[in-house]
Amino acid sequence: MTRRRIPPRLGFRYVIDMLTAALIAFDSPGAPLRREAVARSLGSLVESCVQGLIADALILTAPGRGLAGIADEAGCALIETPHAADGLAQALKAARRDHLLLLLAGFAVERDFAEEAQDFFAYGDASRARTLRLAPDSLLTRLAPGLARPVGLIAPKSALSSAEGADLARLVRKMRGADLTTRARRVL
Question: Does domain 19-186 have CATH number 3.90.180.10?
Fold first, then answer.
């Protein structure tokens, strides 16, 4: 009996693109943003960093907010500008990766975010934007999840630079990206 030698199989290589995360930490007119909310938003991205999805992070904020300590402890770059649009323009220049995750401070991604984003890069159209929405908080958003507030966006750097403005809701409308099934929760 002759033995046939079976060649070793090549292991499955999970190919992903890494992201630059940009945390938008500008105060809304009705509710000032707390430092703890910024820290918790960054903390929710740690699992994505460990899994190799997020390579680097930026914090976009107004000058004098006192977020330099948080950025230093987290190893993030801090971009301080008086207007969010200027901060986004500087973030696009400072981003080291081709795709960005824009996330509003005060919101935390859910646990399965990294896996879904990796699947989207491995099997989906990476040139298409993806929208991260707030978890349902009312009967209306439970029945129609697409009406939930957008709090995050994954998009190519080139698409973000061609879209003008820094308002996340406006960027989501312009990009017409598909919604992620993973949601984000408000942190207190």
Answer: no
